[in-house]
Request: fold
Amino acid sequence: MTSIDGFVWTEEEWGSALRSRPLGEVADHFFTARQLRLRGESESDDWSRVAAAIGVPVSRLLRLTQVHGCRVIVFREGGAVPDAASGVAGARTPGERNWPEADIVVTDDPSVALAIQVADCVPLLLADFRSGAVAAVHAGWRGTAAGAAPAAVAALTREFGATPGELLAALGPSIGPCCYTVGGELIDAFRAGGFAREVDRWFTRGADGDLRLDVGEANRDQLMACGVPATAIHQAELCTASHPELFASYRRDGPGAGRIAAVIRSRGRRQ
Reply:
């Protein structure tokens, strides 16, 4: 198994999981590998395994309908998790939950776990040392251009009194600039999002002349700009497209690609 500084692979009932050692001192969490597809016929069973590994019933695993933006869902203790017992209007399959449309979810409730799923986008997990509040963020290029990471930091600060300087962040496996060739319109999108000064750092030209985006570095820089210390940001620099034995990748596998999940659970407020 590929070794990454600051991260450790663990063996779960369903296969391998990747954990950040520093983040693990503050919140329970993991990133899944490709043994779970998290879509298609196996999706229900796969999510049940994810919930069991993080220590909650699947009914307390809070997910999102991801839309590539920066909307935040705040879940407080005692809040209602969507009920899948009898299904919901508009669900694609019987019993499917009508998850809220957003790409960021935050909570300080240790009785729930938060999960997002990716297939090249950046899976970002955050935890606050004192309040115990946590966040799960789905940050593709659109979400990154919209400032998903800063939106998560702002929500933790506003809703739970977190201090950016005491946050810990783990960026899971995502597509790297080695494989992420993009069009010039993405530069325009990042400039429109307020990141005109950063585009020369995040976008580079490969030896073949193709434009490439380092979406992981963009999220790291955005976190630091919000006040999260560089030493508190831990990045599992593994390219999903370059490791077919480990991860799903939409860029590599196309529409039939599976997904990997990023999951986090609060341990509650420190006394």
User: Anything to note?
Assistant: The first strand starts at residue 7 and ends at 12.
